[in-house]
Design goal:
The protein is mainly beta. It contains 1 helix and 10 strands. Strands 4, 5, 6, 7, 8, 9 and 10 form a 7-stranded antiparallel beta sheet that branches. A hairpin with a 6-residue loop joins β6 and β7. The chain is globular and about 55 Å long.
Length: 112
């Protein structure tokens, strides 16, 4: 049995301590940001994207970069409104997290 301490640290019955890193998030509205969506500079992990609305042939593409160039992290896909896209714990980026947006999409990116 683990005991939670301060919301992000647990201590198990053997005295082992584990700390969870909480995800950060950023809300994006493609109509406001003109499709320039630098989420984070530097290394990190993407946790999930929640799409609240999507219209006009929407697309998203994720880059391991600070711009829409170099290394593709997730190839172009068509997001569906009211959908959560979970990426798991192993989707890491090293340079930055940049999201290219096509059409009209409102979404929230959770990352560490």
């Amino acid at each position: 049995m683990a005991i939670e301490v301060l919301g992000n640290t647990t201590v198990d019955s053997n005295g082992n301590i584990a700390t969870r890193r909480r995800a950060s998030y950023v809300n994006k509205d493609s109509a406001i940001l003109d499709n320039s969506n630098l989420v984070k500079t530097g290394a990190g992990k993407i946790a999930s994207i929640i799409v609240s609305s999507a219209a006009s042939t929407p697309t998203l593409k994720l880059w391991d970069s600070t711009a829409a160039s170099t290394t593709v992290l997730v190839s172009t896909f068509t997001p569906v409104a009211a959908t959560v896209y979970n990426f798991g714990a192993d989707v890491e980026f090293s340079t930055g997290l940049y999201v290219s947006v096509g059409g009209s999409v409102q979404f929230t990116v959770f990352y560490q």
